Amino acid sequence: MHFQLAVEETDLDIGVRKERFSPELVKWVEETMRACRKPLEDYIQRDPGFVHSLTPYTVFPDAPFIVQTMAEAGCLAGVGPMAAVAGAVAEWVGKAISKRSRDVIVENGGDIFLRTSRIRKVGIFAGDSPLSNRVAIEIRPDQTPLGICTSSGKVGHSLSFGKADAVVVLSPSVALADAVATAGGNLVQTVDDLERTLEFASGIKGVTGMLIIKDDRLAVWGNVKLLPN
Question: pTM for the whole thing?
Answer without folding.
Answer: 0.93
